Amino acid sequence: MQFPNFGVMLLPDYTEGQADLSTLEKSVLLSAPIILSVKSGEWVHQRILLIYGRAGVIDFPANCSITVSHHKNNFPSTCWPVYRTHFKCLVHLDPGQNDLIFTLNVPNFHYDRPLSTPFKINYIPLLQNPPLHLAILLSKDSKLVIDAPLEKQKTHEHELDSVKAKLRCAAYLWQAFTAEQMYRNGFGRRVFRLDEDWEQDTITNQNDSLRQTAKIHLIRTNYTREELLDPERAQQYHPPPGTPPTKKKDLFVIFLEALAEYGKPFDNDCYVAGLILDTYYDPKMKLIRGHAALGGGAGHVRLGIFGSHTTHAWPRYLEEVVECFQNSTKTDERILANDNGESETWWKCCNIGIGAMLHEVGHALTLPHSLSGIMSRGFNNLNRTFTVKEPDNITPITPSLENGAHWHRCDVVRFRFHPCFRLSSDPPKRPELKHFAPDFWLLKNSVLICCGTCDISLIEVHVNGSYVHHFEYVDGMSTGNIKLNVEKLKESINWRDGQTIRLHVIAQNQNENTIENFESFLKNHHIHLSTGMKAFKCGKVGLGGGQEFQTLFQKQITANSSRQRKQQSSNNQSAYLTKICINAGDFIDGITFCFSDKTSTRHGGQGGSTFEFELFEGEKIVEIKVRSGAWIDGLEIFMNSGRTSGWIGGTGGSLHLLKVPDAYDIIGIYGSSSWVMDSFGIIYAPADLSDIMSQLFINY
Hints:
about 15% helix, disordered C terminus, 40 strands, about 35% strand, Immunoglobulin-like, single chain, elongated, five-stranded mixed beta sheet, alpha+beta, eight-stranded mixed beta sheet
């Protein structure tokens, strides 16, 4: 890589202590620091900024360094190593403009002026976005210490105050890493923010000034330490064969309950990174007790948790980051865990702990497992993000060599529209879109994906359970409708007969939906009509499980005699839908369809109150809004005349807009029911078919 020289001086090509500087001083050019990862004057949105740059010449002595100095604020200077001209720094920023100076330090070389580069960075916190909260779970009788080697116990690194500093530092590393990844993927300087407060700061070991710094919540559970360390609660515990599953609450549930008991800020929608303090490695059982690596959502809380068994290896301060990611001390497995057999040295332990916990935070921020990167096992390379030198590796670690230390492209596309990652320049939030979820509509040669009036951001394609491709919609509005041609989709993934295609769709509001088996979807969502024509079924909502049904809104009248059948055929008459009766309370119990021939069809139960909605002559149902989760919570019917049924039922679950594509009409419904309606979808056909519906009926 070529880079310009400025602020240059002459320096010899030498090995420290061997060269005659006076005779070789004119032989090479020496460069002041050049910042490559960010431009002077840019705006960023995180407190700790990861910077990559170049300085000097290839044959510098190994211990030259960069000093980062802060002008007009009280944060102390920090020093970062340079390796074969490459350097990476973690730079503290105050809100507003930050005037920085990057100075190259060369041992045993004296020059008249420093090799310095002035730099400006503007930091504006995104206080309007929901933050990531940091929490430490303590048992009722916690000893307030973590597993740590004796040498670290002597420096009190195993005590609670030190653990708080380590978690705070790790969170700022997560933030710096993620901000850099978003920028490299073309999404600007967007990143999640941390919940901060004005308190004694621990991000540097050179002073303990009051600063706006990440707040650590100490969460007490009502469980004792012994109960938390019950082997049956350990995620890595494997009971003897034939042992019945435990009925004990797992650590994730215990953490959630403790957050609920704690109250604010965990009583509303929130995102939480949780560390379990009392985690203990049992060398006799070879089991990490009191540990779980889990992340996801439950109600209004999205939570990622991890045990503290690796925390001894984490940095407390910026000044310790490089040291911790370079420390080759062997893990003493007589007292410390070698998590997953990948933590045999302290620097690898640091990778696993900080990186795997970030993996769980990723789950809390809605990410699934991905093909590569942090949401795979790429966190084993996390050190490469923050250092230019790796133990036992002579190659400088440039950004292109960070390997697994990345967010997969699908991850950053999800982040692009996540509420924690909004920029002030983004379009205003539309709360009315919050609950819409994607739906699937089968057309003649394609599948239409809709999400009400909310846009689609990502479609992931998996074959036989593995990711193979994705379609992203980030440069402009998808208008909430994406049409996938079936044959072109198969061609794009080199599909072969017998392979299972899975489509996973994510909307910009973070709601999702999935076609688990694309071939089955194509096969099962056609309806063959008596005329030989085809109608279609949309992807149904609700989990299903009850008795399946399907009903057309017009049906052929059953004739009682040959004379009546001839008369019916000549008059082209059919029975048509005249009224819908819905039984509902907090959810939809049942639906009855009443026809012009005085017959009716009921699906589901008869609980709740009864709501009747009559259809006038010439009216058509053009749209049905449905809320669903495990069952159908509520619905509203819209007519082409502008009339609506009003909302009927409850308001739980996600919102689906069942509105057929242009040139199609709704001709019936299908789903399943037991004592409630547990799934629901619509049957639709090209609009010209609806003009001859009196001649149609389903071939069962």
